[in-house]
Specification:
With 250 residues, the protein is α/β, with parallel strands linked by helices. The chain is built from 13 helices and five strands.
Length: 250
């Protein structure tokens, strides 16, 4: 059923884009529990429908994207040179669901679980296996820029590094994968300090425009960005150039 629904959704989206080609572009919907079908559908969506990549959620009920059963999909995304947009959904972590959307949703749980999945991808070795894989996170990276030094802790402390098995073996420090394989969108986080931290840690070239429309206000997002005092070059990059370089804009 998931495979059927994904294909129908993709076909409907392709029809909509064809009707309004100057307004819309699309990401593929996949049914990741059928990995073989997902690999084929991603290729169809990119090569035949002209989609930008794959938009997926932070959990699949009982599993996360770092599970190696899903790696063939990662491999196909790398082969096609398209990004994965890692988007929040209701967390599967039970303790995040105690107090309704105030804890599980946009205020906290969405970002916490999505950041967890991105870090699990790093620690699983997925980016060693697929070094050209590109992942987009919303909301200025779901707090990961703030933790950029902290995520390296287990890889720079001699007493931890020398303890075999204390941390998964990686070719580089975790922060290096985040800087080289992750892009972030401006969606739904209108705190100046969050923007400044992200810009300074990741660099302006890693930030693309996102508004969370229609769930959040597009005007609130654009008004916030306009009030940041960005240079003309920074505006050019965030409003279009970075997305074009990533392959997700016309």
């Amino acid at each position: 059923l998931g495979v059927k629904l994904a294909r129908e959704a993709n076909d409907f989206l392709a029809e909509t884009i064809a009707t309004y080609p100057d307004r819309y572009r699309g990401y593929a919907a996949l049914a990741p529990n059928d990995v073989d079908a997902s690999v084929k559908e991603l290729e169809r969506c990119v090569k035949e429908l002209g989609f930008l990549g794959w938009k997926t959620h932070s959990n699949y009920g009982e599993t996360y994207l770092d599970d190696k059963r899903y790696w063939p999909i990662l491999a196909k995304a790398e082969e096609l040179d398209v990004p994965i947009y890692l988007h929040p959904t209701v967390p599967k972590i039970e303790e995040l669901r105690t107090y309704g959307v105030a804890l599980s949703g946009p205020p906290y749980g969405f970002g916490v679980e999505t950041a967890l999945v991105m870090l699990r991808l790093v620690l699983s070795g997925a980016f060693d296996a697929f070094p050209r894989l590109k992942v987009i996170l919303g909301h200025y990276g779901e707090v990961l820029p703030f933790l950029m030094a902290r995520v390296d802790w287990a890889y720079v402390r001699p007493h931890i590094v020398s303890d075999t098995g204390a941390a998964p073996p990686l070719k580089r420090k975790p922060s290096e994968y985040l800087r080289e394989n992750m892009w972030v969108a401006t969606s739904g986080n209108y705190l100046r300090e969050a923007y400044v931290c992200t810009r300074d840690v990741l660099g302006i070239d890693r930030i693309i425009l996102g508004t969370d429309h229609p769930f959040d206000s597009m005007a609130e997002c654009t008004d916030f960005l306009a009030g940041l005092g960005m240079t003309d070059q920074e505006q050019e990059k965030i409003y279009g150039a970075n997305a074009s370089a990533l392959g997700v804009a016309g």
